[in-house]
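Operator note (shift B, R.M.): manual run for NADPH-dependent butanol dehydrogenase Bdh1 requested after the automated queue skipped it. Running by hand, logging everything below so the morning shift can see what happened. Input copied straight from the record, untouched. If output looks odd, do not overwrite the archive copy; leave it for review.
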Amino acid sequence: MALQWFRVPKDIVFGENSIEYLATLKGQKATLVTGGSSMKKYGFLDEAKKQLEKAGMEVSIIDGVEPNPSIETVLRGANEMITFKPDWIVAIGGGSALDAAKIMWIYYEYPDTKFEDLINGIFPELRKKAHFVAIPSTSGTASEITAFSVITDPENHIKYPLVSYEITPDIAILDAVIPSKMPPHITAHTGMDVLAHAIEAFVSKNATSYTSPLAIEAIKLVFSQLPVAYKDGENLNARQDMHNASTIAGMAFTNSSLGLVHSLAHKIGGEFGITHGLANAILMPYIIDYNRKESDRYDEIEKLIGVKNLADEIKKINKQVGIPLTLKEVTEVEITEEKFNEVLERMSKNAFDDPCTGTNPRDSCPNDVQEIFKAAYYGTSTKKI
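Run finished. Output pasted below as returned.
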């Protein structure tokens, strides 16, 4: 029997105003990494800087991380760190800022790292120069808890999920006040990302007795609290439950991996720039119907959370939080039929080759992936694939 692990950050600090925990860190210098706009606008970046200065540290800021962080952004940030020499890297913001900071950390400690090695799962041993704190502003990616980072190659339109326990943060800080400023559509997209993480972790080929209870708890929290957080963003109880759900689902999937929902979402995101959580939300029902031929784990979810048909319930939630049921109805980016069909074969092959495909509960092939994409675009059934 192959050895398995369950690993999460050493410290998970949660609750209102838990950002103040930064003042307890020991070190000389800290670098804050952020996307910039919302964390600056609502004062959270300044608050993080203040708390680090309370700890007696000199602070630098790397901002401007884009929604789909590129290797160029990673290298820019790493070069700034090499000059500044921080003891702590503190990422604050959405999943993109956290993901980018993780890979900046690698290039800061090992400037000669080859990106191809990271794609192939070859990672150096970290914590030679710095430790890592993650403070999420969204309740969705769970990057604060995971061994995952997603970096985009804009030239080839590919998102690469990079996976290693080395990039699991040392400390995760979950302050519900921060995501309370998210607008409703981001609340919806990130919340459905949580649901995709939890469901895929539960049905994964690598699911264990450690990961499955966490996945179910996250599913329950999303079903009960996402519609509340979507309607009333200032409801801190709903926000804290969704923030916790994100992290709990992250604990599950970082140790069990994911499946085709994420494989397809990564690649259509790379091609069209569609928000990751939005893509997950639309794809989930189609992939659930596809996977049920070879997995009874969805039946278990339905029994445990008290619903009759999981795919139908996800569609209901999508409607409640303003998410369309097909890819062709997406309005945040343009996915024309002509362009969709032009990239479909390449996109499907890339999705099949995604690392998440290996733990999907049903074995697939590029042709099946192509048919799923088409079903999700046009709104047709995947039950006969």
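Quick read of the result: The chain is about 50% helix and 10% strand. The two ends are 33 Å apart (CA to CA).
Leaving this for review. - R.M.
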